[in-house]
Amino acid sequence: MAAQIIRHSIENKGEVNLILATGTSQFETLNQLVKEEIDWSRVVMFHLDEFIGLSESSPASFRRYLKERFIQKVTPLKEMYFVNGEGDPAKECTRLSEIIRNTSIDLALVGIGENGHLGFNDPPADFETDKPFIVVNLDEKCRRQQFGEGWFKSINDVPQTAITMSVRQIMKSVQIICSVPDKRKAVAVRDCFENPVSNLFPASVLQTHKNCVCFLDKSSSALLGNPERMKIH
Length: 233
What we know:
Blueprint: H1 2-13, E1 16-20, H2 27-33, E2 43-47, E3 49-51, H3 62-69, E4 79-81, H4 89-100, E5 107-110, E6 133-137, H5 140-148, E7 161-165, H6 167-171, E8 175-180, H7 186-194, E9 212-216
Parallel strand pairs: 1-2, 1-5, 2-4, 5-8, 8-9
Antiparallel strand pairs: 3-7, 6-7
């Protein structure tokens, strides 16, 4: 589906502006995407989020993740905008915000965290800010997820802050594909799709997007009352 959207955008406007998330939820999505027939020279990529103070040489660096799992496996992209958390976070947010502010994002590939976060917008997420990129504090559940997925040797090694694309900026995307596999995401999936939209369940905001498709597996959807009624695939 992502490849079809990308190709359609290239055919219709000559290029595509794409947001890429990271983490284990995106493994299979990216594995498939790099095999698709796409003119990557017409793709502009925006990076969703990154830890503050983490070197790109770290196994947990999302810049490293995208370069190893995506960038190095496709022909050169038209442009790439990575989030760099090693310098001044405020200046980096300003730099990225100025770039994306006047850009129409065609497609965002995202996931949902164990705490229901979208990007690194942990609960209670800021649904009001118009700033495209913001500095956020990471809650305990988010940090434990990062440790549990094996990115860090201990919970104490997980940074407490990050730069993330804001909720409003993500929601400006023309189309969103959200991939959420694994049993450990089942509670978050239930909370985000069976409760009213709330910043306590940040990804619940996806309910309001007119072109969002969420792909779940049997484990992550296990607690949903009626997946068919919700039109979740």
